[in-house]
Design goal:
With about 250 residues, the protein is α/β, with parallel strands linked by helices. Helix content is about 40%, strand content about 25%. It has 2 domains: about 170 residues, Rossmann fold (3-Layer(aba) Sandwich), CATH 3.40.50.300; about 80 residues, no CATH class. The chain has 10 helices and 10 strands. The strands form 2 sheets. The chain has a 6-stranded mixed sheet with strand order 6-7-8-3-9-10, with helices on both faces. Helix 7 links the parallel strand 7 and strand 8. Bound molecules: adenosine-5'-triphosphate and magnesium ion.
């Protein structure tokens, strides 16, 4: 699929009282590309995702989806146009099965879901959608598993399935690899690589090895501002990034 700009953030700024959590951040998310967002703790990565998802309203700046100004759209409206997200902390119904979690996500995007989904045909549609999303997120065969009893890695895959079920075109993923073992991490990276073929992904991640293995574009934030943005090669060789990141052990780890 051809690359296509889906989401553009222009000079988005978020102030919390006197604290400037994001200042004049610019980002472009394209279909077919995985864009990694890096930065130390408190740099403003989650705040940036919150502004793109509508969980936090920008203090100033502009957000466009396919050229349409969506700056004032609330989270539910952003979901309607095709922007989905996962949270830094796992956000599932632990007592429900995988299928139930994903089916509810599928239904959540439909307006007046309660009314519409009284119809059996719509319920069948949602279940069908859920099955496909579960498979795409690498959880084939886990439909009837209780979400809260699955491994941490599988729970994060479930969150990807839930975003898929909403038909999102833009995936905003806040540290989906955090706390994973290397096997789990590898599985998730494979899911993300597949996902990238047809969607635009913004991935917040601290693990540099994972980021450099999978990212097409990297933006580095420090103190609420973009320090650098470019290809993995450009970022690796960027003097300001090296200064900010190359730690005591000479590694890229934060
Ligand atoms: N709702 C809020 N109210 C007040 N301050 C906030 C709020 N959300 C974030 N902040 C502040 O904004 C700054 C950026 O926080 P943010 O959570 O975006 O960073 P982050 O890059 O995601 O960090 P981490 O890597 O630890 O997740 C921090 O100083 C944080 O305390
Ligand atoms: Mg964060």
């Amino acid at each position: 699929m051809d690359n296509q700009i889906l989401l553009t953030a222009s000079n988005i700024t978020k102030k919390y009282g006197g604290l400037v959590a994001n200042q004049d951040v610019n980002l472009v998310l394209e279909r077919g590309k995985l864009h990694a967002l890096l930065g130390p703790n408190g740099a403003g990565k989650s705040t940036c995702i919150n502004m793109l998802s509508g969980d936090a309203m920008p203090t100033s700046g502009k957000i466009e989806f396919l050229g349409q100004d969506i700056t004032q759209y609330k989270a539910a409206q952003r979901s309607q146009v095709g922007i989905g997200r996962s949270y830094q902390r796992t956000n599932i119904f632990p007592q429900f099965t995988v299928l139930e979690n994903v089916r509810l996500a599928a239904q959540s995007r439909k307006q007046e879901a309660a009314k519409i989904f009284k119809k059996a045909s719509s319920l069948i549609w949602a279940i069908e959608k859920a099955h496909l999303s579960i498979e795409e997120a690498g959880l084939r065969g886990r439909d009837t598993s209780i979400a809260g009893l699955m491994s941490h890695g599988e729970q994060r895959q479930l969150e990807i399935a839930m975003v898929l079920a909403t038909d999102a075109q833009v995936f905003l993923l806040d540290e989906p690899l955090a706390g994973m073992g290397s096997d789990e991490s590898e599985k998730m990276v494979n899911v993300l690589k597949k996902l990238r073929e047809t969607k635009a992904i913004l991935l917040v991640e601290h693990d540099m090895d994972a980021v450099f293995a999978v990212a097409d574009v990297i933006t580095v934030m420090v103190n609420g501002q973009v320090l650098a943005s470019g290809s993995p090669g450009q970022i690796k060789n960027n003097a300001a990034v090296q200064e900010a990141y190359l730690g005591q052990e000479g590694s890229f780890h934060v």
